[in-house]
Amino acid sequence: MDRIDAMRLFVRIVERRSFTAAAHDTGVPRSTVTQVIKQMEARLGVRLLQRTTRVVRSTLDGEAYYRRCIAILDDIEDAEGAFNGALPKGMLRLEVQGTLARFFLMPGLPEFFAQYPDIEISMSESDRWVDLVHEGVDCALRWGTLPDSDLIARRLGMAERMTYASPGYLTRFGHPDTLDALEGHRIVGIRLLTTGAITPLDFVVDGEIRSVSLPATLSVTGPESYLLGTRLGLGLAQMPRFHVEDDLRRGNLVAVLTNLPPPSVPVSVLYPQSRQLSPRVRVFIDWLAQQFPMELKP
Description:
Helices cover 38% and strands 24% of the residues. It is of the alpha/beta class. It folds into three domains: 3-76, Arc Repressor Mutant, subunit A, CATH 1.10.10.10; 87-158 and 265-291, 3-Layer(aba) Sandwich (D-Maltodextrin-Binding Protein, domain 2), CATH 3.40.190.10; 161-255, D-Maltodextrin-Binding Protein, domain 2 (3-Layer(aba) Sandwich), CATH 3.40.190. Helix 1 (3-16) packs across helix 2 (19-26) and helix 1 crosses helix 4 (60-84). The radius of gyration is 24 Å and the shape is elongated.
């Protein structure tokens, strides 16, 4: 294995915190991975990785070498692309919320692959907060307010939200037209994965956000179950308009309190700030920004 490939392997080990995971990602035998790192440490004269039974961590020298490797590998990829006119290629690992994948990502993928036939996408769907670097993910597509992190977020649009209910629910509980009229109502709750807390309903009133907590007959963590519970008349719910447009057309859901909408939420693509964007990630993010309709543009 030459030094460039060894650098790629070392970078993968640091990011995955695992010799085994890095071996799986790169297709290199586990025994070869161990030998390459031993040779690298012997050549440099420093300890790069601290191994335990559960995880692999970089030493201070290893962290410095990792950053140098990232810069070198990105420069090589940029240089080769610039001089031979080649299109970006390789595996792109993407984490996306399933609702966004269904509405904005999947429909345009045939066009993307036609334009960049040598890029492969490995996509995982999840609503949990993913450690992009340590799970080997290049970028993530998320909607909602983002927690503080070391990730770079590029805003792709703002999703308009509204409060919805099924006609059957409104027949039983009444059609609220003020926040005071919400007394006696219930919600389909959306639970935070991190704390298990149920998110209250939010309303913009005279430029300020007012939160209203109501009992939840059903609480869930996924957007599809959240939508289904609302269709079934189990309570009020607040969702992005793009998620319910078909249900509104079919009469499955009705918007309520339209004069007191919840605040819109950003749709963003996130990627690590510890590295330059590779050409394949750069072209994917630029393409992704074009997939959002004008009404969602920031």
